[in-house]
Design brief:
With 296 residues, the protein is an alpha/beta fold. The chain folds into two domains: 211 residues, Rossmann fold (3-Layer(aba) Sandwich), CATH 3.40.50; 77 residues, 2-Layer Sandwich (Alpha-Beta Plaits), CATH 3.30.70. The protein is 36% helix and 29% strand. The strands form three sheets. Strands 5-6-7-3-8-9 form a six-stranded mixed sheet, with helices on both faces. The chain has a four-stranded antiparallel sheet with strand order 11-12-10-13, sandwiched between helices. Helix 6 links the parallel strand 6 and strand 7.
């Protein structure tokens, strides 16, 4: 099966800034991919390139087998929900949903109405009078009810409370199961969305540093906890992603362990704990949880 998106040697420069730097990857059909990275890492620029809204400095982009730039046959199969989505100045909420079928041939009006009720969205209010969370809800509803074959969500939940974000995650999974399509979810709330993701693209300083199946990625690191001497002996010669400790205790995150290595760790009295996707990515980018969360 041909990939929905195929990118090779893609770069986008703004003056001396390399927003995207020699990126190569593909997106398979009917998968939810997390496009992850700190603020300024290049996520939004990459999505603008994939949706034909930016011209590449160099490299090749194929979406549904063709260039997306000024290509109506490609763009009509894409829905891109931006963090800073713009609408006509005089639009009411209801106008967004009434006009959606003009752009999305798979638009499901009944599903949109269900989502309006669940997000408690006032449809008779002007778009410019909406709160940040309500504006995010408009974008989420369009993104879900469009059922576009390729859908991008760029930080779609800004201003939403935890309950509304969970509604989004639940409805995305439910509708994706019934109507599979390719979804790219750009976010910094990695722990919240980690169980949604089937594939992970991590971009850092414009470069793709992780391009892996999410389940395989989760198994690439383990935290070893125990007495400092026992931990140091066990991790000697291994790839160390992070080290922490207090007094005589140590906690060290290492690369993946096979069954025999896990058995040896248990025999040495060590505790093995899984590493969350967010913590793994933080370790891979050499930053801290606070720095990562404040960057977004």
């Amino acid at each position: 099966m041909s990939p929905v998106v195929q990118v090779s040697g893609l770069s986008k420069h703004f003056g001396s800034v390399r927003a995207v730097d020699d990126a190569s990857f593909s997106l398979e059909q009917n998968k939810i991919t997390g496009l992850l990275g700190r603020n300024g890492a290049g996520k939004s620029t990459l999505m603008n390139l994939l949706t034909g809204q930016e011209f590449a400095t160099r490299g090749d982009i194929r979406v549904f087998g063709a260039s997306p730039v000024e290509n109506a046959s490609v763009l009509r199969n894409i829905c891109f929900i931006k963090e800073s989505q713009r609408y006509p100045e005089d639009f009411y909420v209801k106008h967004v949903f009434k006009s959606a079928p003009w752009f999305f041939e798979n638009w499901d009006a009944e599903f949109a109405e269900q989502l309006v009720d669940e997000f408690r969205l006032p449809t008779d209010r002007r778009i410019k009078k909406l709160s940040r969370g309500q504006l995010s809800a408009v974008g989420i509803i369009v993104g879900l009810a469009s059922r576009a074959p390729l859908t991008f969500f760029d930080e779609p939940y800004l201003g939403l409370d935890a309950v509304a974000r969970q509604v989004f995650y639940d409805r995305l999974l439910e509708d994706y199961a019934e109507h599979p399509r390719t979804v790219v979810l750009s976010t910094h709330l990695i722990d919240e969305v980690s169980m949604l993701l089937e594939h992970v693209l991590l971009i850092d300083d414009g470069r793709i540093v992780i391009d892996e199946d999410a389940e395989a990625l989760r198994n690439t690191a383990t935290t070893v906890v125990g007495t400092r001497s026992a931990v140091d002996a066990f991790v000697a010669g291994r790839e160390i992603l992070h080290r922490d400790g207090i007094g005589g205790l140590a906690s060290v995150t290492v690369g993946g362990l096979d069954d025999s290595e896990r058995a040896a760790a248990h025999a040495a009295g060590l505790e093995l704990t899984p590493v969350s996707l967010q913590q793994l990515i933080i370790r891979k980018t050499g930053t801290t949880t606070r720095e990562f969360e404040q960057s977004a």
